[in-house]
Prior knowledge:
Blueprint: H1 2-19, H2 23-47, H3 53-85, H4 88-93, H5 99-127, H6 136-163, H7 167-172, H8 174-179, H9 195-202, H10 206-217, H11 225-252
Amino acid sequence: MSVIGDTAVLTGRSLKHVTRSMDTIITTAVVPIAMMLLFVYVFGGAISHGAGSGTYVTYLLPGILLMTIASGISYTAFRIFTDMTTGIFGRFQSMPIARSGVLWSHVLTSLAANVISLVVVFGVALLMGFRTGAGVGAWFAVAGILILFTLALTWVAVIPGLTAKSISGASAFSYPLIFLPFISSAFVPTQTMPGPVRWFAEHQPVTPIVNTIRDIFAERPVSTDIWVALAWMVGILAVSFAFAMVVYRRKIS
């Protein structure tokens, strides 16, 4: 119970920092929203072959949601790096606090901040014409996938937060993750891509996750992509969590 109690207290501390600087959450949503506006209203006519902005925003929204999460986790790395350089982790180490609780507080704060950003992006998508007849159960399924994806990437973010030598280095790792949806099925079908690019697009984690969310929103039977998506997310989560804990113990030992 001490781990849960310590994590709750530390999460409250971290959340206070986030609520005092809501501009970070707004900034997180700005780039994905800008991309959504650009692709729907500038490129959408050519890409969707006149299917309409509402249809295309529904098609690309899953990829935009993953991009939002990838953008948001950079602040997790930033906050951990700040705590490391200011010596706060060292102070926590001298107190009777569960070691894992310190990192979990940052992870749960990231989850809360990303949920707010995702809600903002969903709101803009609705204004742009996103529509789905998916029921409550389907929405819970999508929420579960997005939460698992957020947890997996956030634990990845913990590692550069602990090991980076500068602020820019702590957050720069997220840039490839933000643009990974561009080489996936997020914006166009992978069948339209040339051979090597198509192979990469079909064998990276974003594509099965996007396809699964898209099928759920479209009320179609979910393909085997869901198992591939879950395998990717659980695998990334397990490996990054284990590696982050090893790095953390070495840093504070």
